[in-house]
Batch of 4 targets.
Target 1
Amino acid sequence: MSSTSAEKARVIKANLMLQAKVGSGTIEEEKIQKMEKTMEEAKVDFAPMANIFLNELAVAISQARTMTDATSKSTDAVIAAMTEPVMQIKANAAMFDYQLVGNLANIVLNFLENIEGIDKTVIEIVDAHQKTLSIIVKSKMMGTGGEYGQKIEAELKDACKRYFTKRGTEAVFVE
């Protein structure tokens, strides 16, 4: 696959005013350790943040269910509406020691990024994901979830793989 000059990556130098605000150079090791300690000791509850994103996902799923004769533009908008909260959950879960939540969100994010449209099965998979994450967050199941977490991850991956197999496309999961 050849790329035109318009498709090639460009390096954009930082604005000098921005650099003046941010500064340059390295951060002292002592400050880094102090920041890491503060982050580790912070007792922030992930559940309220996660619930905001899970509610956004529920609304997007509801919108997807009510789509009739959707144009590709509205389909893309609904896929984007489902993708955004999943992306936010994935980005924040590990920071609060919810690795299982982050792993599951990663699987569904990958799924949503590879679908070509919305159908009943897509909605069922994303809805099951939303309900599962809601239960995990409500029960404050932190960490990987152990053997139970591995089974949930495997089942979600299998559901996504079955979806792509039925459509004759290859499922690609980024770990």
Target 2
Amino acid sequence: MKLNRYIWTRKAIHLMASILPVLYYHFFSRYQFFAIILVLTIIALLTEFLRFKNEKFAGVFYKVFGKLLWKNESNALSGSTTFIIGALIATVLFSKTITVTVLLFLTFGDTIAYFVGNTVARIKIVGEKTLEGVIACFLMSFLIALIIPEISFWHGLLGALVASIVEILPWRIDDNFSIPVIAGAFLQLLTYI
């Protein structure tokens, strides 16, 4: 599959979103990060509301961002909005370390899964999702978990596995939301066992 420049741009933005959890890990308290993500969530939801309800705004929005949207995002929340909402929920429900980990699973794991799945993969397993993409997502997520000192080897291994499984599930929930929420809940649960 040939990847056009809009897909490259979209995935570059996805990777740049990793700045948020990195900044959270190194510089912000949970409350500071919550405030930042809350403001971003309000801006994202306001943008979505205006996109759907105001023709003038929608015209400008689609002129600037239209080619970066997937087809299903024309009548639904954009991936960036679901990412921010997922980040907000993760920040509220999970520890700082787990929130950072699952947001990095999403930004890096999901991106590598897309590129591997659409360039070199051959074995389709769920819809358009491929075995090679899932393996790439798992390996990248596990590598991220190994880099974060507070995440144990086994928790990282299992968390990466859950994130990879969530990434391929054939449901209508955007993985920008489901990966941080479900993998985060799983990792948080592991801390109590």
Target 3
Amino acid sequence: MNAFQKNTTNADMADHAYVSTLYKTAMADGSFVPLLTRLEHVIAHNVSTESLIESKGAFIERVDHIAEQTASILHMTNAQASELVKTMGDLLVGVTSTDQGPSLKGEIIPQDVQELFDSFSSETLFTKNACRIITGIRAEMS
């Protein structure tokens, strides 16, 4: 059982709770997002074709497994859930780049500037946009 499965105990989990669990699970392993970011741009270009095909086969199996769980949790079809799972990885890579700014911990920041920083945090961006994507996939594929 992986960390995602451990954290998803309610089969009727709301979209927001699902997205929050997905984000926290992905971020819990400090190496997951950096590896995901490098996967297509660096790693995939520096392995043999045989290794690439083998790893993509394993990836398909994992996506299918996660999509099956997601379909049940979010009351989606398997096709919708598969599309969602694939999209979440791309969204995660994109939004985590917003957390690359300088650390201002311990600094006095005006409230309006802090609110701006908070609105661009990867967690905020991921949560809002992942929920929008779920809604869009449901609408598009229904």
Target 4
Amino acid sequence: MRKVPLTARGAERLREEIKSLKTEARPRVIKAIAEARGHGDLKENAEYHAAKEEQGFIEGRIRELENMLANAEVIDVTRFGTTGRVVFGATVGLVDEADGRQVRYQIVGEYEADMKAGLISVTSPIARALIGKEQGDEVSVAVPGGEKVFEIVSVDYA
């Protein structure tokens, strides 16, 4: 399997979620299963079946997260210095040339992308258009409604 890039912060988030699932969610659901077993006949015990289903979800999520980390190449952008170029892990401030609206995106790996939080995948069209560019450059991005032009106003590596 190919390695997938992941920021250091993204890797830490995955580790925290695994820890939370193992130390909080897993013990809670095991307790719920034990309590439901005490209610008698398991065939018609909705609490038992719901707890077992939740247990399956938790265990599946733990495996999924552990696989993500095993197949990740953690990249700490702060090690590369501040070159002014847009690279993986950089946070880029943009101004939409059409309406003057400002946005900020951090270019992250596929596993940690969350558009609402301003985290865009390195494989997305906008990230591919930004990589290698510098502050002051204009970037054209093909979008469903045509083409958008952005000016890069800042590049941060924090």
